[in-house]
Amino acid sequence: MVLRVGEVAPTFEAESVNRGWVRLEDYRGRRVLLVFGRYFGCPACYLDFKTLVDRQGEVGEYAEIIYFTQSRPGMARRILGELEAEFPVVPVAREGGYRIYREYGLGRMGLREAVALLSRAREARGEGVRHGEYEGRETQVPGDFVVDGEGVVTWAHRGVLDLDQVLRHLEAGERPPV
What pTM was computed for the model? Predict the structure, then answer.
């Protein structure tokens, strides 16, 4: 089931590799951008993560960030040695069937998402990013969500991260229609 704008975000409690335990309830009263990547060996997902790290200050003016990955904790720590994320990076275990991805409606990607992912991968190759270790589900769709201070989803997107679009939404302070 796809999570939609206006719905209450599923709660979670998970251990990040860099900021300890993360619970959605701990962010009540603040907006949160939840970004679900695939795995760091994926050039498109690596580029999206790098962009998020490079622009975390811009996002931080409007919302907290939590990043989810299907990479193993060791790989996530290695990437964090290269890129300094001030936000929690949460590896989601395969053993649970990537439960939190399912709860947010992020299953297999469709044709539109696959084409966008391939386009982003070409962009990443153009910047010298090569495919690394395969860790997650190749057919997994990435996505991003903005959750307001009351726990309501105000932005829901399946596909590669378009941070400019997310920032426009955050800057506008948009709320779902009642």
Answer: 0.93
3-class secondary structure, 120 = helix
Question: Element (H or E) spanning 57, and its range?
Answer: helix 56-60
All domains of the chain in start order, with CATH: 13-172 (3.40.30.10)
Residue with tokens 């991805």: 101
| Residues 38-97: tens digit of each pLDDT | 999 999 999 999 999 999 999 999 999 999 999 999 999 999 999 999 999 999 988 777
Please give the C-alpha separations between residue 55 and each of 17, 25, 128, 131, 163, in angstroms, as whole numbers: 20, 25, 20, 23, 9
Element (DSSP H or E) covering residue 157? strand 153-158
